[in-house]
């Protein structure tokens, strides 16, 4: 996948290499219309450079829309480090990456994502000030999965109200695909709300955690089995493309609302879901709690303030679902329209000279 011959409309894509440390990274800035681009760093063993490029372009675009709908004065960006985090991650590699982030002069703020953690951001921050998602002992907010899960739960409540008339999952069965950092916390919220949870994960460690912590959770062997099970809500909380041409026809849930990024395998899947009567809550709307948390850290982190902002994901989700009904479009299209409107209307103000 090329950059110039695509329709991505990215402002800047930077390829970063430091052979001595083994760093191979790509930083993509989709938009700075609302402010500096903010988005996490994904450390992942891609099959090819083309796969890494495709992922960073898709993820950075999603961050621009996510930040816009979250009401943040921040643009959208993302970075990927090509490699196995268990094998390749090191202090020299992370510090080399930090130097490349610093070279962008504040156009891009990085944070955690799949394969990176708060202690990694502490290392990156030794080379650049344009990093958030740091540990508490270094003045940061700590684990952003806490408010990510809270925001997903709020969006799920809004979807339940839209679909069934009550903003609660009590008495409903929710299928959680992925018991990672976010999936674990989301499971806790769901059980506390009175929902039954069915879950799956590729990691035996994660499944062991579920057996020990929440023995009432029904564990299935595969995501395919989860999709085909008798659930009310499907919550993809692992990697992207969870909703594809094979998954959607088999889906029995009436709501899809999860934490994973880029859940739609290709354009048009959202319409297929709508035609089947499945209410899809756009992932970049309800998983914005984490970016709200790390954005709050930039101005001096206050957990109560950040949680209040993440709670408003409930209101944003209601607004999008109502707009989708009024305009006769899938929720993803309604969300895109709202995000693009804010980027255009607020971004235009930057042309006014002070």
From TrEMBL:
One annotated GO molecular function: oxidoreductase activity, acting on the CH-NH2 group of donors, NAD or NADP as acceptor
Name of the featured protein: Valine dehydrogenase
Organism, scientific name: Rugosimonospora africana
Glutamate/phenylalanine/leucine/valine/L-tryptophan dehydrogenase C-terminal domain sequence ranges: 142-351
Family: Belongs to the Glu/Leu/Phe/Val dehydrogenases family.
Entry keyword set: NAD, Nucleotide-binding, Oxidoreductase
CDD domains the record matches: NAD_bind_Leu_Phe_Val_DH
Pfam families the UniProt entry points to: ELFV_dehydrog, ELFV_dehydrog_N
Positions of NAD(+) binding: 178-183
PROSITE patterns: GLFV_DEHYDROGENASE
Catalytic residues in the record: 78 (proton donor/acceptor)
GO biological process terms held by the UniProt record: amino acid metabolic process
PANTHER family on file: LEUCINE DEHYDROGENASE, VALINE DEHYDROGENASE
Signal peptide: none
